[in-house]
Amino acid sequence: MIEDYLNEIKNKRDVRANLSRMRAALKQCEQEQRAGLLKEAQLFFALLCDSDPKVRKNTALLLGDLSLQQAAEPLFTAYRDETVRFVKSAYLKAMQNLDMSAYRKELERSFAALQKEVPQEDEKKHTAEELNELRRLVDDAGAGFLHTFTDFSDTGKILLTANKEQREVVLDEISELPVTVKRKARLHPLGVLVQTNSVMPFARLRTYRELLFPLPVSSPLADEPKEAAKEVWEAGILELLNGLHTPDGPYYFRLDLKSRLMGGDAARFTKKFCLELQMLSGGSLFNAPDHYEVQIRLAERKEGGFVPFLKLSAIPVKRFAYRKHAVSASIHPALAAMLVRLCGPYLKENARVLDPFCGVGTMLIERDIYKPAGELYGTDIFGDAVLFGRENAAAAGELVHLIHRDYFDFKHSEPFDEIITNMPVRIQKSKEETDKFYENFFRKSKEVLTSGGILILYSNECGFIKKQMRLQGGFKLLQEFVIREKEQFHLFILETGKQR
Q1: At what angle do helices 15-26 and 31-38 cross, to 10 degrees?
Q2: 323 domain residue, yes or no
Q3: I need a labelling partner for 171 at 20 to 30 A (CA). Which of 44, 71, 78, 454 fits?
Q4: Cα three-residue angle 265-271-275, rounded to 5 degrees
Q5: Does residue 340 fall inside a structural domain?
């Protein structure tokens, strides 16, 4: 089939379309066919001078697909001489697969000149594409990814995100920071808003989900992407980034759109916003969704408009560095830390602790970090999770005995003082099966817990838990917390009956 396309091109019949068809076929062709195309290099080089700009574009992309090193000089010459803007990025895209070190200085000069150019409205898209391709060619050392976080030079605001039901837990953890850490903290719809002179003490806290920087805007951003990008730029995003990093830009960014927009609508908004912001910045901000250190978060308000935040990868946050592995059912470590903190008054040092559904060990590790336990045990039927958990525990410097076994078959010579666990979420199980599971769980937990032991459950099956407490007896509800009201997740803290 490739030979047919090649013959059509040689005979100058529908060249543009046949080049496109050849590119598609090339993805599945044999090595021998690919080698045959390489012998036709001079034919393709000549097509780089064709009068049809789309032929030039398709030819350049084909040469890139072939990774033909001898195409470096013809591609660079064609790029330098090209007068049609939308074609230029195709030459640069093709160069990505070649060694262009001989042309690096000239490409750098082109990059610098294009950054200063103010394109016409109808050329913004193609100028941005050309800039991005040039950036990839000249920035192989990652100049836009080599920033060091320097903290506030004076004071600034950060947002520590958390569930609305448990923002007070974060506020409580903040109150335990040394008095030398200057801060003013208050509840915010998305967590806790803090004004401080230093970010790093807060980066080490465990109970918040994300650390974000609010952009200083006087009102919500517009719903229209180009206007929203303009407002982000005028809010001083570059000044904020330069004030928090060394050296100054350029910065690679991606847009994280938290919105009711879905699918193609969200993609179109994202594309237009990023293009406009990149153009406004004159190359100081580059849209690089696969290689970024600045995440621009736009959170849509119920009333309309967006609230903008920044998330920075350069901050050396190592609070959960132990978490080398996770599985789909793994609890987020910040959530685990928050749950453990809520249980704090009921936890004892040197307690013997068991997690019957331990997964990768997060609950046990966070339990021991908050208040050192005596012995830590975990069981799980998923063998890979147990192996991952052992690696996580080793990385955390924790001695945790993780066992690949069904909890209902687990035996231990001594009773446990605590059971703490993230209960399995019901998936494709009937109510009868779930009811039986909780019946067996409570019966087994009575067997393995000492008299007066503590049972800590995080679950969205509140009805089944309360039913078994009522039917089986022997458990006293010490406290119940609503963690995620919408999904009905609660934290239960129970005590086994004490022997007289």
Answers
A1: 140
A2: no
A3: 454
A4: 150
A5: yes
The count of domains in the chain is: 3
**How far apart are the two ends of the chain, measured CA to CA in Å?**
87
pLDDT, tens only, 321-348: 999 999 999 999 999 999 999 999 999 9
Q: Please give the structure tokens belonging to residue 170.
A: 């974060």
Q: Do residue 223 and residue 262 come from a single domain? A: yes
Per-residue pLDDT tens digits for 417-468: 999 999 998 877 899 999 999 999 999 999 999 999 999 999 999 999 999 9
User: Residue 227: which domain range?
Assistant: 143-317
d(CA 265, CA 408): 49
**Residue 50 tokens, joined:** 């064709």
Would strands 211-214 and 156-161 be described as parallel, antiparallel, or unpaired?
Answer: antiparallel
Given 105, 123, 140, the domain boundary residue is: 140
Instruction: Using a cut of 0.85, tell me whether the model's pTM lies above it.
Output: no
Decide which of 140, 168, 184 is a domain's last residue. 140
DSSP string, 38-106: HTTHHHHHHHTT-S-HHHHHHHHHHHHHHT-GGGHHHHHHHHHH---HHHHHHHHHHHTTS--GGGHHH
Summarised one tens digit per residue, pLDDT across range 34-57 is 777 888 889 999 999 999 999 999
Q: How far apart are CA 193 and CA 448, in angstroms?
A: 43
Three-state DSSP at 304 gives: coil
Averaged pLDDT for residues 355-382: 97
Phi-psi region for residue 410, left (φ > 0), alpha (ψ -120 to 50) or beta?
beta
pLDDT, residue 35, reads 74
Token pair 């685990």: residue: 336
**CATH code of the domain in which 169 resides:** 3.30.2130.30
Q: How confident is the model at residue 478 (pLDDT cuts 50, 70, 90)?
A: very high
Helix (H) or strand (E) holding 266: helix 263-280
Radius of gyration of the chain (CA): 30
pLDDT digits (tens, 9 = 90+) for 270-308: 999 999 999 898 878 988 888 889 999 999 999 999 999
Strands (DSSP E) found in 99-176: 148-149, 156-161
Which run of H or of E encompasses 470? Answer: helix 462-472
Residues 266, 195, single domain; the answer is: yes
The C-alpha atoms of residue 35 and residue 439 are separated, in whole angstroms, by 67
Report the residue count for the chain.
500
Q: Are residues 343 and 420 in contact, defined by beta-carbon separation less than 8 angstroms?
A: yes
For residue 356, give every residue at least 6 positions away whose Cβ sits within 8 Å of its Cβ, in sequence order, or none.
378, 379, 407, 410, 419, 421, 441, 444, 445
Report which DSSP code applies to 495. E
Rounded (10°) CA dihedral 176, 178, 181, 187: 10
